[in-house]
Write a structure and sequence with these properties.
alpha/beta; 11 helices; binds manganese (II) ion; binds glyoxylic acid
Length: 426
């Protein structure tokens, strides 16, 4: 059975929904929507409405992850999961994450409307903590669904000192219910996510769709450098213990390590807090973050060791203290070969080549890979720009992604995947 999909109409509807979600923000002049905030609540309510209108049964777990369930074979049947996230970075674009949720809803809606019969169900998931921008707990909502939520995360605090546990309660949920968010691995077939590429490759190749081979591993560190405050006008340069100058040298070392790497390693210092933060006081304490990623887990671990060694050398040479702690660590996740093939065949049904490419960005699939096989479909985005308000994917490309997921589901007749061979090399 070929389900009719009007690609242009689907793309237009998806864009309208994304525009409505893009207007839900903590900030008056940009899109910022963090985990477990009132704006997360409003966005989740809107998405729940879209899910219901698509014919799905909607529920929500203790971390606010929405589930829209299509259950043609009853509630106990195995599930195919399709999802992405609805939290954003600060000053975000409106496609990162949210597009995958909307594409999933529209694809399943088309399947529901067509009256397709399947011996399994499909759950569309909308996660709330993919970006890790509020708490240092990146991927906690997908980890809970995968059955790997760590209770110690409940003590993590946001910039205002609110703990994750407090935020969960303020959202109207009970942390005691987190274990119930986990899916049964024996009844979970796979997790599939559509996402904008967030890079320039598909645009350069003139291809609207791509198939992800693997999601690069990542480490996130918090580095605290301590020196001594002093008068900016009186302390000679040779007598200073300037925590910021030391932190700056460490940031440049991280950049140098990444540039020298042969596996496309990337290093980013994205957050930096200087104390006491006065124009005329030598900084006494600096806390900064380092986000380090690579397609090779081996080279990422070597780089971490080298960075730590260099940071201590710099601190010693400058008479500073340094403490380094890791708050997020996830290995490279290969996408399941059978899912790559199925997604490529679905794209081929639409006349699309859908080249294979790795993902440098992190995704909920990294946490979901501990539950089940993972597959990802990338959608071209203009200029490869993401984590930026200029982020853009065209309605036509988004409509194609909806159609590709519809073809993927059509071809997915039995609740099993072929083989157990994972797809990527280290
Ligand atoms: C999420 O977007 C990440 O890759 O940091
Ligand atoms: Mn994302
Ligand atoms: Mn993102």
């Amino acid at each position: 059975m070929r389900i009719p999909v009007d690609i242009a109409a689907m793309g237009a509807r998806a864009t309208e929904m994304l525009d409505a979600l893009g207007a839900i923000s903590q900030s008056g002049d940009n899109l910022t929507r963090f985990f477990l905030t009132p704006e997360h609540r409003r966005a989740a309510d809107l998405v729940a409405g879209y899910m219901k209108a698509a014919g799905l049964d909607v529920s929500e777990d203790a971390l606010g992850t929405l589930r829209g369930r299509w259950q043609p074979a009853g509630p106990e049947a195995p599930r195919l999961l399709i999802g992405s996230h609805i939290d954003t970075v600060a000053n975000a674009g409106r496609y990162d994450g949210t597009m995958g949720v909307i594409v999933g809803i529209l694809a399943v809606e088309a399947v529901v409307k067509a009256g397709l019969k399947r011996p399994y169900g499909i759950d569309v998931l909308a996660f709330g903590d993919e970006e890790g921008t509020r708490f240092p707990t990146t991927l906690s909502s997908s980890a809970a669904v995968a059955g790997h939520f760590l209770p110690s995360w409940l003590g993590a605090r946001d910039a205002d000192g609110v703990s994750l546990e407090e935020a969960i309660r303020a959202y109207g949920k009970d942390p005691a219910d987190i274990p119930a968010a986990a899916y049964d691995p024996d009844k979970t077939i796979a997790y599939v996510e559509a996402h904008i590429e967030q890079g320039p490759v598909l645009e350069a190749e003139g291809e609207p769709l791509g198939i992800v081979s693997a999601i690069a591993g990542a480490s996130r560190l918090s580095i605290t450098v301590t020196g001594e405050a002093g008068h900016a006008g009186t302390v000679p340069m040779r007598m200073r213990r300037d925590a910021f100058a030391g932190a700056a040298e460490m940031a440049l070392v991280a950049e140098k390590i990444a540039r020298a790497d042969r596996h496309g390693m990337v290093a980013t210092v994205g957050r930096l807090h200087v104390e006491p933060g006065s124009v005329n006081v030598i900084p006494s304490r600096v806390v900064f973050t380092l986000d380090l990623r690579s397609g090779s887990d081996i080279s990422r671990r070597e780089a971490l060791t080298e960075f730590e060694r260099e940071a201590h050398r710099i601190a010693d040479a400058r008479g500073l203290g340094v403490v380094i702690s890791a708050f997020h660590e996830v290995g490279t996740v290969p996408c399941y070969r059978d899912l790559q093939l199925r997604l490529r065949n679905a794209a081929a049904d639409l006349g699309q080549r859908a080249p294979t490419l790795p993902s440098g960005a992190g995704h909920d699939g990294q946490a979901m890979s501990r539950l089940c096989p993972v597959g990802m479909l990338f959608v071209r985005c203009r200029g490869g720009i993401s984590h930026n308000p200029a982020e853009y994917a065209s309605p036509q490309d988004i409509g194609l992604a909806v159609a590709a997921l519809v073809r993927f589901i059509e071809r997915f007749e039995l609740p099993q995947l072929a083989g157990s061979v994972q797809g990527a090399e280290q």
